[in-house]
Amino acid sequence: MGRYSADVQGFDLSSTFRNLCRSSPWKWTTLRFEYLERPGTGADIVRAWLRRPGALRLETCDGQLLHSTTGINDSRDDMYVSATRRSWLLPAHLVTPVYDDAGLVRRRPEALYGEPSFGNGRLAAALDPVELAGNSPVPLEFPDTNRVFFEEPRTVDHEGRPALETIVTPSRTHVPSDPAQPLVHPGRTLIRIDAGTGVCVASQSLDGDTSGVGHWLKILGVDEYMLDDLFLAESMNLTDVRRHIPWDIGPAA
Predict the structure, then answer these.
(1) Rounded to whole angstroms, how far apart are CA atoms 189 and 183?
(2) Residue 185 — φ and ψ, nearest 5°?
(3) For labeling, which of 105, 204, 232, 241 is most exposed (least CB within 10 Å)?
(4) Against a cut of 0.85, is the pTM above it?
């Protein structure tokens, strides 16, 4: 239902912005992108391949491996034996949320959420920016309990893709996914959400000591097929059947 829709015209953009921030788990399964923290500081861009629920590969622009998921095929027996309630939650894409008329998520169900990350929690928060909206709308009589307040969003182009952009300020109920690397800093923060994936593709603090801190993400591919071999620290070295395999015979073999 609206999984691949990027058309946000004709809808209330304030509600659309919040619902878009809740929608990422149902918008895509794999993502290929470039990622930069602290734009304008000279930090290096990394290239990333991500496959939900837990596979991530990061490389430098010249192809040097920085991080690769290991153990993606390990048994999960220990997790289930622990018998905690969280152990039995289903991944988000296997449960159905409540959608709005635009095909975006109005209310998120209880599920096993969480994105793979590296270094700090900012990347995971950007991939699923629900912290900007919460799992469901707040009661109309308590608008001050929204996670963030923001100006009327506007549609913009981000690296060739449609996005919603606005300036947000945190409320008293805002709880960042990673307090050390939040998406939203005290004061004003410029936020940009990709309309097709629900990913926070840009953030930049505008005030105080954190001015300029944020990230920039360029989406290169959505829902591309990705093999397990891509996410292993060492290749499985499977035989390429397209290549000729020589067979040495005779006395000299």
Answers:
(1) 8
(2) -95, 165
(3) 241
(4) no
